[in-house]
Structures are given as structure tokens and as C-alpha cells.
Amino acid sequence: MIKRLIAAVLALFLASLPSFAPAQDAAAGVAPPAPRLFLPVDFNADNDPENILVLDLSNGKRVTIRLMPSWAPAHVERIKTLTRQGFYDGIIFHRVIDGFMAQTGDPTGTGQGGSWLPDMKQEFNSMPHVRGTVSMARAQGDDSANSQFFIVFYPRLGLDRKYTNFGRVIAGMDAVDAIERGEPPANPTTIVQASIGADHKPPPVIAPAATTDAPISLDDLKASAN
Fold first, then answer.
1. Residues 6+ apart with CB under 8 A from 10
2. Which residues make beta-bridge pairs with 151?
3. Cα(2)–Cα(216) distance, rounded to whole angstroms?
4. What number is the average pLDDT over the span 33-42?
5. Mean of per-residue pLDDT scores for the chain
6. How many angstroms separate the most distant Cα atoms in the chain?
7. pLDDT (average), residues 176-186
8. Which residues, in sequence order, are CB contacts of 44 under 8 Å at separation 6+?
9. Phi, psi of 28, rounded to the nearest 5 degrees
10. pTM for this entry
């Protein structure tokens, strides 16, 4: 009898205790965080043009990239902001390693520069660095990405969760393959124009590369005299 009475009193006591955390959250109107979704890549460039990045390169080719805000929303917004400000126009691919990746986004062309905007907090995610992945370059610190990014030639899964993967090439990977190699390249490939698909910018007119006339030999002079 006594044991049952003690148990009943204890149960009433525990039931009377307030539930502090839920009450505080409800009072503050704080909703529980939504689960993070990693949507698949849509390879149709006609869909959601607001999240299409177009790079017109000096090699005469065009690269179309699907930006993935569900993977890295802040990084996608940074890329779109800089693109619309014309930041990437005229910037070279300054570090291009065969079999690895092509890196760009530094206005100094040295790998040491960035934009006037502050560095970003990392958004590392589980999406793999496969061929065509577009990922944010950074310095030693996790939160040091700014404007530079790189495109992967071949899968590099060792980069997963260490660099912010924010997009994928969906057309024009042949243009990426044609980017001049080197650190820096002797004749670097340039982003002539970067644009967002929703802005419907026409492709720029790219002047053909200058050709050097072959020297005139003595035989050529004799032939012309005849």
C-alpha cells in the first residue's frame, strides 16, 4: 500500500514539472529545422534558367552549368551576384591540371585574389565530386571561399565534404576539356562572358586568334621573281 502511494505521488510530481524547451521554442515561434534535401541535377537547361550559369570561353565554346541551391544556397547566390555584376568577364583559368580540374575566378590571375565581398562560411555537403562537378575553391581555412571555383575533369571523391560542391556542367564539357593546361597556362583560356540563363544574354562575338605569317624564304623570293 505504501509503495503504491509513493509511486502515485512521484508520478504526480513528474507530471507537474514544466517542459521548458518546447515551451520556450513555441513562445519564440522557432520551428524545428527542416531536413536538408539534395535534389538531383536537372540536365535540361530550359528548366529553371535562374539557376543556369553560362560561360562563353575564349576557345569559342560555351559551358552550361546547373547551379544547385539545394546543395549550397549561399554559394549559388554568391556566384549569381558576381556574375550579374560582370565580375567573371575577362578572368582566366589560371590553374589547370590535366586529369584533375580547371580553376578560375581570380581577377589577379595568380590564385591569390578574390572579390570585394567577404569570404563565405563553408557549405560542405555529401554530393560527390564527379566529372563536371563545379566546386568552390578556398584557402587553408574552411570558411575562406570567396569567388574562385573549379570544374573537375575526372572524379575526385577525396574532395567530398572538404570543398563546397554547388553545381554540375550539363552541356559543353568538351569546352572544359579544351581549356589550356598549366599553372598558369602559357596561353590561358579566358571567360569572355559569364551570364545567368534567365537574363538571356546573347553569346559574345569572339575574335579569331591572331595568326603569325610564316617567314619568307629565299626560295619564295626566287619563285615570285619567276
1. none
2. 102, 134
3. 117
4. 78
5. 86
6. 131
7. 97
8. 170
9. -85, -5
10. 0.78
Taking the domains of the chain in order of start, what are their residue ranges?
52-199
Give me the CATH code for the 52-199 domain, please: 2.40.100.10
User: Can you spell out the DSSP letters for the chain?
Assistant: -HHHHHHHHHHHHHHHS--HHHHHHHHHTPPPPPPP--PPPP--TTS-GGGEEEEEETTS-EEEEEE-TTT-HHHHHHHHHHHHTTTTTTEE--EEETTTEEEE--TTSSSS---SSPPB-----S----TTEEEE---SSTT-B-S-EEEESS--GGGTTTS-EEEEEEE-HHHHHTSPPBSS-SS--EEEEEEEGGG-PPPPPPPPPP-PPPPPPHHHHHHHH-
- Check whether the bond before 184 is cis (ω within 30° of 0): yes
Q: What size, in residues, is the chain?
A: 226
Angle CA(201)–CA(153)–CA(166) in degrees, nearest 5? Answer: 55
How far apart CA 71 and CA 42 sit, in angstroms, is: 13
203 residue type, one letter? P
Q: Which three cell numbers stand for residue 1?
A: 500500500
Report strand pairing: 91-92 vs 190-196: antiparallel
Contact predicate 45/64, CB 8 Å: yes
